[in-house]
Design goal:
Elements: H1 2-16, H2 28-37, E1 41-43, E2 49-51, H3 58-63, E3 64-69, E4 74-79
């Protein structure tokens, strides 16, 4: 699909004024809005509350996974980490 799009962009770009957006600045306002869109507290029906604080919004996508367990017929959250910080 990517080579097809590149060919389309080269062939049709001038005709339809398709700009090269492979390199573009990211607005701080947009990043702040994206961070606010990520839930920081998840209240579950099993009387469990998960609190999260993301300094980087990509961390949620990269290190947090939501899935479905067929055997238990329940959803679950899986968190990836290297070490636990104790306070």
């Amino acid at each position: 699909m990517i080579p097809e799009f590149k060919n389309y962009k080269v062939e049709k770009g001038p005709k339809y004024s398709i700009e090269d957006v492979s390199n573009f600045p990211i607005s701080n306002t947009a990043v702040s809005a994206a961070r606010k869109g990520i839930k920081s507290v998840i209240n579950l029906d099993t009387q469990v509350q998960i609190k999260m604080d993301f300094t980087n919004p990509e961390s949620a996508e990269k290190y947090l996974e939501k899935g479905w367990d067929e055997e238990k017929q329940m959803y679950y959250y899986l968190v990836y980490f290297n070490r636990e910080e104790k306070k």
